[in-house]
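Section handout, structural biology tutorial.
Before the tutorial, make sure you can parse a SMILES string by hand: atoms, branches in parentheses, ring closures as digits. In the record below the ligand is pyridoxal-5'-phosphate, and the chain has 390 residues. In the tutorial you will relate the predicted C-alpha cells back to the input. Do not try to memorize them.
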Amino acid sequence: MAYSPETQAIRLQTRRTAEMEHSTPLFLTSSFVYHSAEEMASAFTDDSLDINIYSRFSNPTVDEFVTKVCALEGAEDGVATGTGMAAVFSTFMTFLSQGDHILSASAVFGSTHTILTKYLPKWGIESTYFDMTRPETIEALVRPNTKMLYLETPSNPGLDIIDLALVGDICQRHGILFVVDNCFATPAVQQPIRFGADLVIHSATKFMDGQGRVLGGVVVGRKDLIHELYLMVRNTGPSLSPFNAWVLSKSLETLFLRMDKHAENALHLAQALENNPHVSHVKYPFLPTHAQYDIAVRQMKNGGGIVAFELKGGLEAGQRFLNALQMISMTNNLGDSRTIASHPSSTTHSKLSEADRLAVGITPGLVRISVGLEGVVDIVQDVEQALERS
Ligand SMILES: Cc1ncc(COP(=O)(O)O)c(C=O)c1O
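Predicted structure of the complex:
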C-alpha cells in the first residue's frame, strides 16, 4: 500500500549508506566513479539515468528531491533546475519551436512575462495573453500552431483563480500542452495534474524551501515529456545544485504542516483587513468575496499563504505603509516562515507598462503580503499599525 503524501514527503529517501545515517545524506559531488572501464563505457551508451555520471545529468540528492515532488504532485517523473525561471525557460525551450504559438494567462510572474514578450519572439515564437477571469474567451484564441497553454493559479500577485479542469478540457480537445506554475499553492494545497495539466512547474525557492535560503526549480509531469526536458537540461546546464536539493528535500518534510499554518494565518489576516478603513479591497482565495471563491474551494485544500490588498491612498500610501512596518520584512521573496510585504507595481512587475499592470489588477496601491508562521496576533497588529500610518 502506498503511503499518504504527508508520509512520502518525510519518508522518501536516498538509499541508506553503510554509515547508517538517519537524516538523508548529501551527495555533494560533481562527478561519480566507476568500478571498471567497461562500466564507464556503458554509462555513455544511452541517455538513461541508471548510472550517475556527472551532477549536471543526475545526482542522488537531486533525485530524492524530484522523487518527493513527483509523489506529492501525482506525477510520473520530474526534472530539477537551479531556479524557478530556469524551469520555466527550459520548458518553453524544450517544447516550443520556431513558428509555434503559446497561449498564456496575462497574469503571470514578471520574468515569465519578459520571456514571453522579449525573448521568445527572437526565436520566432508567438504568444497571446488571455484573461484568467474570462475563461470563456480562451478557446477562440487557439490557433493551428498553438502548442502550449501556460498559467499560474493563484496568480502572482493578483491571486486570480482559474478553473483548472475547464482549461484542461480545452487543452485536451485541441492537443495543446497544458503547463501550470503551481508555485503559490504547492502540491500540499492543489495538484494540477488531477485536473488535466501535462506539466507542473515550481519555483522551489518559495514555499518548498519555506525559509528563504536557497534557489531552486522543478518541473514534473508525463514521463515522455519529462524525458525530453531532461535531455535539454542535461545538455544546456540549468541543473539544480545538490546542496540546494538537500535543503529543499528536508524542507518538504514540513511542507504540509507549514502550508496549513500559512493558510490559517493568511485567512485570519484577510478577515481582519476586510473591515479596515484604509483598505478598499482585500483579495484572498478563501474569502467568500473573492470573485472565483467557488472554484478556489473546489480545487484547493486551503487558500494558501498570500494575501493582497489595495490601499485607498494609492502609490504614496503603499510606500508609507511599507516604511511604517516594524516586524514584517520588506523584501521581494515570498513563501518564507517570516511575513513579507511587497509592492508589486514598483518591484516585481515594474517592467510591465502601467496599462499591462492595470490589465492584470496590479494597481498602484496593491500590497502583497506573504503571510509567515509568526504568531498571527503579531502579524495582524503590525499590518494594522502600519495602515494607521499609511
Ligand atoms: C509564480 C512564480 N513563478 C516563478 C518564479 C521564479 O522563481 P525563481 O525566483 O526561483 O527563479 C517566481 C518568483 O517569484 C514566482 O513567484
